Amino acid sequence: MVMMHNGRRWKKGYVFFIIRDFILMRHDLKKEMKLKRRIRSSNDEKESKEEEVEELKKRIQKIKGDRVMRLMAVATDVADLFIAVVEIEPNPFYNHTITLGISGLVSTWAGWYRNWPS
Q1: Closest CA to 68 of 25, 115, 117, 30
Q2: pTM of structure
Q3: How far is the C-alpha of 107 from the C-alpha of 113, rounded, in Å?
Q4: Which residue windows are coiled coil (predicted)?
Q5: Percent of the chain, pLDDT > 90?
């Protein structure tokens, strides 16, 4: 009985982090759209500063990189959630060798990608 309680708590943690990453990605998308609007408005002005536009483009690139990293985190959390479900509540779907293999590969690939030095 204790194992089931701990398992449910683990699953809630995975779901929490998945939802958190999607919320942060949405926030970053809004920020990126604002920056793109600022670039367009500065391009329309005759006295636009080239340095400011370059800085805005760098910030947009950073946001895009963060989005990729968050997607990798979501992929890892979903794969780990599948693996946790198998350990807690075995059933024919999640117990399938291919499903576990794919989940493990996604988890490993996403973890490797997140830890790769830039």
Answers
A1: 25
A2: 0.69
A3: 10
A4: 32-66
A5: 26
**Chain position carrying tokens 């204790």:** 2
For tokens 């942060």, name the residue: 24
Tokens read off for 78: 């979903």
DSSP sequence for the chain: -HHHHHHHHHHHHHHHHHHHHHHHHHHHHHHHHHHHHHHHHHHHSTT--HHHHHHHHHHHHHHHHHHHHHHHHHHHHHHHHHHHHHHHS--TTTT-HHHHHHHHHHHHHHHHHHHS--
For residue range 31-71, list pLDDT tens digits in order.
Answer: 999 999 988 887 766 566 788 888 999 999 999 988 988 88
Let me know if 43 is exposed, middle or buried by CB neighbors in 10 A (0-12, 13-18, 19+): exposed
46 and 78 Cβ atoms separated by less than 8 Å: no
